[in-house]
Structures are given as C-alpha cells and as structure tokens.
Amino acid sequence: MTLDATTARPHPVPTPETEHFWEGTRQDELRLQKCSDPTCATTYFPPRPFCPSCGSRDVQVFPASGRATLASYVISHLPAPGFEPPYAIALVDLEEGPRMMTSIVEAPPTPEALELDMPLTVRFLRLSDAISLPVFAPEVTR
Predict the structure, then answer these.
(1) CB of 107 within 8 A of CB of 114?
(2) Are the beta carbons of 25 and 132 closer than 8 angstroms?
(3) 96: Cβ–Cβ under 8 A, 6 or more apart, which residues?
(4) pLDDT tens digit sequence for 107-118
(5) Contacts of 55 (CB under 8 A, 6+ apart)
(6) In the predicted model, what is the mean pLDDT of the chain?
(7) In angstroms, rounded to a whole number, what is the distance separating the alpha carbons of residues 107 and 4?
C-alpha cells in the first residue's frame, strides 16, 4: 500500500549501493540482502555491497515479507521537517531478522496504541517519483 506524503520531509539520496532498495520501495516492495555464502547466510539491513557478518561480496537481493514486530519506540513532541508532532519513531524487527528504524502510521502515537511486540505491516510513503519510504502500520487481523 502506498501513502502520499502530505508534508515535505527530507529525501534520502540513493547511491549505487542502495539503488536496488529504492527501486524496490518505488514498486511497493521492501528489499533486503542475504549473504550467499552457505556458512554465513546472514540477512541484513541497511543495504551494502558486502555481508556485514563475514565480509563476502557474494550477496543476493530478495523481497522481504513486509511483516515486522514493534521492538521499541519513542513518541516525539518536537517539531521536525515533515513531521507533525506528536509522532512515533520506531525500531521494528523484520520477520527475516534485521532491525529497521522507521515511522509508525495508521495508529495514534500513544502508549495505549503502540504495544511492544505488536505485529506490523509495511506501507510505503511516496515522497516523490524517485523516493518512497518504508513505514509500518499495525497489522489488521481478519
């Protein structure tokens, strides 16, 4: 699901090492990397051209599930470019293993609404034609 940004946020600048990640977010896909060395097989984030665990440059890019759990958060009441206070800044544990810093959307930024270990699903906040940010929302149970 893609959301449109209603305020101007600072835009990340893609590099050759991160272009695959940003290409994925433009297509509403969260991409991670995994070491192809069978003795390592570390899945990692943020993107880089080598495995942070063993240093191998034999790595592959793959689409992540988009599922995560809330590991930690802080509710900020301070103004920041592109953010309307209060807002939640979070660390989420991706289902595939890595931890990611992100924003929480579609939930009030209150301790009552944000429970640690709650299931989350990725959304994509479109800042421009070139940049969409992965953000997370509480998983809707059916």
Answers:
(1) yes
(2) yes
(3) 32, 43, 64, 65
(4) 999 999 999 999
(5) none
(6) 93
(7) 16
Mean pLDDT of 87-95: 97
Amino acid at 55: G
Distance CA 109, CA 140 (A): 17
Is the CA virtual torsion 49, 59, 65, 72 positive or negative?
Answer: negative
Q: For residue 108, give both structure tokens.
A: 């009030």
Q: How far apart are CA 131 and CA 52, in angstroms?
A: 25
Cβ neighbours of 108 (radius 10 Å):
12
Place of tokens 């665990």: 53
Please name which of 45, 86, 85, 36 lies closest in space to residue 68, comparing C-alpha atoms: 45
Tokens at residue 142, please? 């059916």
- Report DSSP letters for 100-130, one per residue: EEEEB-SS-SSTTT--TT-EEEEEEEE-SSS
98, 43 contact by CB (below 8 A): yes
- Residue 64: partners with Cβ closer than 8 Å, 6 or more residues away: 30, 31, 32, 94, 95, 96, 122
